[in-house]
User: Which sequence fits this backbone?
């Protein structure tokens, strides 16, 4: 897995060029849209594994899994973002989100794409979308600055605080 | 790819953690010693050694604090040291007032440590206040008693090298009318440490050893002769028979005929020609006294007067390095070095080990399965199968040894929590003028370290409650013919796989009518409900959130942190708390806890194709469900089992899981019991028993009730472990007590 991501990272580096201070984002797919989170906040990427549902937990919680002897709560990002539900499939992944302090939380996503290195000028603030945006939207990423890929950049903090 | 989750925190953090845990241990010990001192003061028998212990603990704390830049703690320790030094040297008399300050200091240490660990605010103002109070104390010194020493035929050379502390002890003993004895004993240099200890142990019951010094005479290259100055009430004959040994001689130090020395001159001027060593107590060289290590703190320069006549000293101790003091300076039991044989271990490390053992248990199960397959499939590899089976058994045996070994390490005596409570009792009873004796039994009962940690606060609340609401004032007690001093009994004992802790007071007991009235007034119970509650259920009201009988919050309780919190905290540990009370006689709260949280034996059950684990400690039995026996009492399903009513809880309904459709299959009832409440959980299937390592659910799921944690079953599957206590609580909630009453009525 690590080698795979490193390879992707290299590709991303080639695409993004070398100039300026850049932040690495991991892009993933969710109900047809591309989202991205700072890769520093992702401790690990898991393939789908049996999830034990927890009765009476919040609706966004898919359940718990055991990762090398530790229990991890898995949140369905589709449910969290009120997107149409879909079961986990072969391409689905669970990102282990880790903000350095507090609990690690698993985030179920449809598919993991690649790592982007974004410079400050490639990021637009969330308010370009107009009006009130949910707290978890940190901005819009436009790799290369032009047309083409649009990344919805996420702030994981509110998601981890209230899964 | 990216950094892993674990392995954060550098060496500095680790050292800091160790500092905190070591300091905490010292502070706990300090608290215990202070309690002993308090007792000693009450009976008027002060043990000088106890004050020394306390002094040493504070001294060590100061050093630790300095090392880790905990300035607040270092400052407090420094001031405390001064006061303790004064106590030790008799400059200040021990009183309840001083003790109060010392107890306050222990409490503040606790808060400083919490602040250092990031778990609370820095008690800056309080520390400053205490520092001022301590400083005032150091100034109130008592004097006097110096002249008495000179009545004895003691060598001035000796008096010159006594430490201030030894001088104080000598004076005190003489003032108390004890006799002085001189013990001459020869030790082999090779065994002096242990031999000296042995001698001290023999001497201790009879008096106090004030100092010991080498005589410098009659010693050959391998031996050393010491003269020991001892104070004792015993006769010389008795001492001779008690302190025996091949090279021991005991003489009484005679009183001088007349009042020779000028009064007020504690240290007579050294004479030109001192008496020979065997005649009086004549030390050639200071070899270190009881407080060799601590004497640095007193600041006194202790170069012994060294008359020319005693020059030969160094030559009689040729085997010792130049300053002979360094070798013998600190007898082992006086060292600041820890004497305990224990290793401090972070409980998280044990958790990790436990996890590994858990994984091994899964491997073991896999091997068992494999063995079974080999045995049944391949008739020609029977021998291989037998070999495998044998291996599996050996593995199993070692694994369970390891399991119980780690479990044992996690166990600590409940006394760790009880010691803190004794301080609380003392503080509260002094603050409120209610005299209370705490009687502890079963402090040696062992329980998981994690549980002990979590127990302190609930127990403290219960004791505060007992003193505040239970124990009557002195006058009230006398009026009803009770002893003026109240008693709070803290009893602990093991009962099967559980530990029971009782907090019992001999106070006024709970007034059932008053309780009920308060509960109705606060809207916790409706009038109608109130009429149908049994006395036991009424008592249980005290555990309801928001309940209090006192309209005005006192200092002690009634400030919002009520017994409901106690109940919740105990429930988190998988335990329950019950209350019984009798008016005029007293109240007893009983906590029942599992011994350990780490490995538990569970019954695996299936509900709608999902697996759940029910701790066997809570399972009474499991029976097939005969639907025809199920009755409904006010919407609650009740089963009659052997003539008694059992409330039922269908887990599929409670958890919102689609029930199994194969309705022809019989369901099962798992009868669970916590305390004396029972509930039948209806499940689809009984899967089997298993030892599991229970792991907590993350904080993100802490609002989810009914689960104690989860466990991995192998093949990556996770099963949730039911929190039977909380489920019983939830299902048979106090608001539904009428139903319980009905069920119980049917049973009784």
Assistant:
């Amino acid at each position: 897995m690590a080698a795979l991501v490193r390879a992707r990272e290299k590709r991303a580096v080639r695409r993004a060029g070398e100039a300026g201070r850049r932040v690495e984002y991991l892009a993933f797919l969710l109900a047809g849209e591309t989202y991205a989170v700072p890769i520093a906040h992702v401790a690990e990427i898991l393939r789908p594994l049996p999830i034990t549902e927890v009765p009476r937990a919040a609706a966004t919680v898919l359940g718990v899994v055991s990762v090398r002897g530790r229990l991890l709560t898995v949140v369905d990002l589709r449910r969290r973002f009120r997107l149409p539900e879909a079961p986990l499939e072969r391409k689905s992944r669970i990102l282990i989100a880790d903000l350095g302090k507090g609990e690690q939380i698993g985030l179920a996503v449809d598919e993991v794409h690649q790592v982007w290195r974004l410079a400050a000028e490639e990021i637009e603030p969330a308010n370009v979308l107009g009006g009130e945006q949910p707290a978890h939207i940190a901005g819009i990423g436009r790799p290369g600055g032009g047309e083409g890929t649009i990344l919805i950049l996420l702030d994981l903090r509110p998601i981890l605080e209230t899964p | 790819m990216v950094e892993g989750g674990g392995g954060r925190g550098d060496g500095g953090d680790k050292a800091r953690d160790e500092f905190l845990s070591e300091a905490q241990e010292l502070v706990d010990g300090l608290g215990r010693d202070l309690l002993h001192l308090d007792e000693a003061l009450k009976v008027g028998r002060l043990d000088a050694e106890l004050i020394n212990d306390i002094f040493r603990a504070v001294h060590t704390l100061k050093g630790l604090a300095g090392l880790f830049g905990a300035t607040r703690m270092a400052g407090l320790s420094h001031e405390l040291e001064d006061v303790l030094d004064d106590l030790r040297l008799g400059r200040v008399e021990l009183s309840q007032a001083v003790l109060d300050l010392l107890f306050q200091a222990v409490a503040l240490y606790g808060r400083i440590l919490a602040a250092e660990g990031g778990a609370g605010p820095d008690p800056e103002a309080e520390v400053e206040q205490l520092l001022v109070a301590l400083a005032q104390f150091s100034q109130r010194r008592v004097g006097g008693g110096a002249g008495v020493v000179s009545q004895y035929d003691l060598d001035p050379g000796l008096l010159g090298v006594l430490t201030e502390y030894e001088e104080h002890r000598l004076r005190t003993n003489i003032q108390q009318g004890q006799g002085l004895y001189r013990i001459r004993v020869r030790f082999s240099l090779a065994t002096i440490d242990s031999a000296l200890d042995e001698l001290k142990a023999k001497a201790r019951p009879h008096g106090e050893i004030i100092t010991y010094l080498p005589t410098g005479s009659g010693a050959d290259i391998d031996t050393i002769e010491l003269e020991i100055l001892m104070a004792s009430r015993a006769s010389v004959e008795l001492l001779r028979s008690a302190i025996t040994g091949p090279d021991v001689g005991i003489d009484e130090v005679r009183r001088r005929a007349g009042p020779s020395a000028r009064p007020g001159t504690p240290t007579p001027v050294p004479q030109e020609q001192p008496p020979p060593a065997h005649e009086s107590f004549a030390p050639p060289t200071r070899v270190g006294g009881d407080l060799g290590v601590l004497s640095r703190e007193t600041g006194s320069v202790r170069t012994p007067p060294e008359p020319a006549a005693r020059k030969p000293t160094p030559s009689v101790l040729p085997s010792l390095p130049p300053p002979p003091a360094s070798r013998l300076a600190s007898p082992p039991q006086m060292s600041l070095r820890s004497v305990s044989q224990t290793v401090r271990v972070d409980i998280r490390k044990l958790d990790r080990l436990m996890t590994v053992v858990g994984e091994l248990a899964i491997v073991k199960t896999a091997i068992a399965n494999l063995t079974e397959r080999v045995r049944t499939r391949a008739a020609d590899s029977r021998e291989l199968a037998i070999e495998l089976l044998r291996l599996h058994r050996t593995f199993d045996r070692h694994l369970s040894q390891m399991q119980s070994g780690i479990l044992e390490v996690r166990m600590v005596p409940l006394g760790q929590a009880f010691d803190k409570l004794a301080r609380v009792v003392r503080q509260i009873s002094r603050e409120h003028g209610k005299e209370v004796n705490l009687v502890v039994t079963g402090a040696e009962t062992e329980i998981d370290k994690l549980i002990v940690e979590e127990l302190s606060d609930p127990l403290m609340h219960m004791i505060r409650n007992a003193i505040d609401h239970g124990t009557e004032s002195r006058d009230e007690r006398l009026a009803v013919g009770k002893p003026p001093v109240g008693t709070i009994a803290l009893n602990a004992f093991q009962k099967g796989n559980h530990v029971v802790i009782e907090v019992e007071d001999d106070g006024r007991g709970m007034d059932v009518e008053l309780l009920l009235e308060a509960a109705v007034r606060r809207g916790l119970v409706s009038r109608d409900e109130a009429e149908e509650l049994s006395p036991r259920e009424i008592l249980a009201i005290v555990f309801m959130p928001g309940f209090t009988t006192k309209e005005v919050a006192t200092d002690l309780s009634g400030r919002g942190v009520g017994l409901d919190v106690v109940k919740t905290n105990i429930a988190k540990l998988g335990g329950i708390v019950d209350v019984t009370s009798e008016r005029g006689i007293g109240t007893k709260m009983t906590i029942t806890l599992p011994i350990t949280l780490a490995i538990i034996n569970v019954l695996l059950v299936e509900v709608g194709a999902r697996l759940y684990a029910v701790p066997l400690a809570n399972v009474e039995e499991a029976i097939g469900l005969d639907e025809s026996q199920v009755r409904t009492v006010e919407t609650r399903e009740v089963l009659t089992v052997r003539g008694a009513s059992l409330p039922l809880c269908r887990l599929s309904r409670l958890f919102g899981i689609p029930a199994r459709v194969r309705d022809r299959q019989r369901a099962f009832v798992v009868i669970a019991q916590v305390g004396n409440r029972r509930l039948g959980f209806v499940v689809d299937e009984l899967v089997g028993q298993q030892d599991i390592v229970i792991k907590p659910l993350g904080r993100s799921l802490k609002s989810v009730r009914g689960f104690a944690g989860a466990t991995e079953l192998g093949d990556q599957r996770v099963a949730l472990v039911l929190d039977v206590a909380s489920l019983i609580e939830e299902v048979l909630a106090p608001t539904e007590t009428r139903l319980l009453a009905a069920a119980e009525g049917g049973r009784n």
